[in-house]
């Protein structure tokens, strides 16, 4: 079956959605391990409770991004995953790391890319006055938050929204979106065409609206 390693930095709610999608979807797939750059990430404890192997690779133990990424790659490669899924993983990865997992490294970003790459996307959306906010699941390339798009989810922005309100509304869509993408990957339906655009067999729309 399809082997996933999931990378987290904190709460891990997207990681939980991925694990649940694999279990409840009856997929020929498994989450082999959950890896974090933070020893005390809440998501690691949840994964351990589920019987999923966990690994911490604390970034502060390494003197450079290159050294950290090399240790991270060693931790990942021990599980021989088909795909590495970033789920609230908050470290920027080096081009060497990204190229190593070319076509196999996927991220969820909390904005409608290419709008609002980087951090504090909910604040950015409110400051921009946009009426729709959203999230993007995409292949990771060396350019931050810019790779081929697998799926996008939209939520409305309401008049009185705070960044936290918007984040909470969007999180439901994130979970739904990542679960769908994991199913497509596990079923071997995802490909990149010659233009580096994503194709998913048997799926008409990869847009979701709350
Ligand atoms: C999610 O909203 C995810 O989209 C975002 O962090 C949150 C993690 O929550 N990711 C990024 O900002 C990536 N730069 P979770 O740990 O509960 O999944």
List keywords for this structure.
210 residues, alpha/beta, binds glycinamide ribonucleotide, transferase, Formyl_transf_N_sf, 6 helices
Provide a descriptive summary of the structure in words.
Helix content is 34%, strand content 25%. The chain is an alpha/beta fold and 210 residues long. It has an 8-stranded mixed sheet with strand order 3-2-1-4-5-6-7-10, sandwiched between helices. The chain has a two-stranded antiparallel ribbon with strand order 8-9. Helix 1 (13-24) packs parallel to helix 6 (163-186). The chain starts with a strand and ends with a strand. Glycinamide ribonucleotide (GAR) binds at residues 8, 10-14, 43, 87-88, 90, 108-110, 135, 171, 174.
Outline of this structure?
The protein is built from six helices and ten strands, in the order E-H-E-H-E-H-E-H-E-H-E-E-H-E-E-E.
How many helices in DSSP terms?
A: 6
Q: Which cofactors or ions or other ligands sit in this model?
A: glycinamide ribonucleotide
Largest sheet: 8 strands, mixed
**Rg (C-alpha, Å):** 16 Å
Describe how the helices and strands are arranged.
Elements: E1 2-8, H1 13-24, E2 29-36, H2 42-49, E3 54-56, H3 65-77, E4 83-86, H4 95-100, E5 105-109, H5 121-128, E6 132-139, E7 149-156, H6 163-186, E8 190-192, E9 198-200, E10 207-209
Parallel strand pairs: 1-2, 1-4, 2-3, 4-5, 7-10
Antiparallel strand pairs: 5-6, 6-7, 8-9
Helix pairs in contact: 1-6
Glycinamide ribonucleotide binds at residues 8, 10-14, 43, 87-88, 90, 108-110, 135, 171, 174.
